[in-house]
Amino acid sequence: SRSESAAVLVGRAAERAELLRSLDDSAAPAVILLAGDPGMGKTSLLDAICFALYADVPGTRSKRGLRSDHAAADAVPRVTLELTAGGRRLRVSRTPEFARPKKRGTGTVPVQAMVTLEEHLAGRWQAIGTRNDEVADVIKDVLGMGMAQFSKVVLLPQGEFAAFLRSSPEDRREVLERLFDISAFSDVEAWLAQARRDAREE
pLDDT tens-digit profile of 75-85? Predict the structure, then answer.
C-alpha cells in the first residue's frame, strides 16, 4: 500500500516541530531519505512514527524518555500520525505515560498512557478504537507487520539496514514477501521446478 499523506508532531527540546508531506500516486517515492546533522531530530521523528503506530520505540531506546526534559511542566506529550494503507485512511493519536504537576500542593501525579484511533469515513473522522489491544490489531492488520519488522524494513534507521543485509536469506525472503507481491514469481518458480522434475522422469 502507498501512503497518501503523513503528518507527525514531535515534541523535542521545549519546541514542537511539524512535518507534513503529501504524496500522490504519481510522485510517491519508494524510498524517503531522512538526512541531517546530528541533533537535528531524525531519531526523534522515527521514534514518533513508531510510537504512534506501536506504542513503543525501536532499538534500545525507552519510551519513558519521549517527553522532553525541557518541556513545560504542564505540557502534554502527544504524537498524531495520519496514514493511508490497505485502502483505509487512519489517524492515530497517543500520549505516553507521564507525570504532571498536582493541581493543589506540590509534587506530581502519574497520567496513564492514552490512544485514540480514528478512520476517515463518509467525509469525517470517526473513532474506532481507544484500547491498546484493539488499536494494535487494526494497525497490524492494515500494515501487515509488527514493530520489529516495521523498524527493520520500513524505517531502516541509522545503520540498521546493514543488519537486514546480514540476516539469513530465509529471513530476508520472509520480510520481502510481506512487503511486495511476488506471487507471480513464485508461480513461475514452481512451474520451472515441476518442469525440471518432469524432464528428469522422461
Answer: 888 899 998 88
